[in-house]
Amino acid sequence: MVTKLKQPVIPITEIEQSAFCQTDEELSSKTLAEEFQAGVRWQKLPVSYMRMSPEELDDRIGAARAKLGSSLVILGHHYQRDEIIKYADYRGDSFKLSQFAASQKDAEHIIFCGVHFMAETADVLSSDDQRVILPNLAAGCSMADMARIDDVYDCWDDLQDVLGDHGGVVPITYMNSTAGIKALCGRNGGIVCTSSNATATFEWAFERGERVLFLPDQHLGRNTGLKMGVELDEMLVWNPFKPLGGHTEEALRRAKLILWQGHCSVHTRFTVAQIEEARQKFPDVNVVVHPECTMEVVQAADLVGSTEFIINSIRDAEPGSVWAVGTEISLVNREAADNPDRTVFCLDPVVCPCSTMYRIHPAYLSWVLDGLVEGVVVNPITVDDETAGFARVALDRMLAVV
Ligand code: SF4
Q: Which residues pair with 21 in a beta bridge?
């Protein structure tokens, strides 16, 4: 049995998570030099881009985009800033954007305005002659960074040692994880899930094994497990910095659901107190939250679902209805602007964008577009063939389930 003591590592993305939190709701982009003053560590780029004003960058991006025509497609995740979303040919959540990337056979270049794991997934799903570009290589995801591949392999090996060969454990990884973890799932009879199909993938997994190892978001895993009737005392949280995840062999044998100790720094900001406050202020309020929120928040909300579910719930609602939303602020602000006959606000009074999504500043988009105009591919994201092959197995299983 592998017994190791490791030092806890806090991802830099988690440390910087509150770098742009504020109370005045002013999220318009500033020059990159000004944004760097928040003490963030982003990718370096030519200094001229640091000083360009938002207006200069806007003109520059528009000109480069026009020159490049249909040779490229720009994808924008819902949590991106407005100054980036305005250039997106397609907007969506991570899964929809990856599917869209796979369907864009004519585009030579796919510029993914999102975070690293999304660009990796797009590379896995796109064809060999297409290049996926991530404008800022520092745009990771604090949740994905909490599951490092070596730690996950150690966990998997420990579970095999304790529970026997495969031990009836089926690994499920949330889309928000590295290609390496998706490949581990593909190699070992596992599957990928998104926040909209987590229940279907749990059903699939429990038809094939007695237990599920769920990575990397403990909250989505717990919320889905509860929905499926798994009791809290049948779930464990695996701490990668403790031997056997912090559990005895007997406890591991009893567990039905082993949850990786990861979380989303944005969605765990929401609290039951915020929901109570919203209900006091607006007795008819509809509270809708993302399943990456804690179990307590999910249970206190009226509706729970993926980003796409949240968008559709608000758009399909009656005019005059009131919506308190527990998800990323850029999306909430956009929904409020797009639905002026409904009251839409974020549960959290502090405006706190996802700091990793926020790393796609217009200066970075301008830089990679200018590179393409000059024939230079800046920041390509490439997953090696073996990893991509097994990751694709786990992604294809998901597509067959839903
Ligand atoms: S919102 Fe959370 S899960 Fe999504 S990219 Fe940001 S840190 Fe990662």
A: none
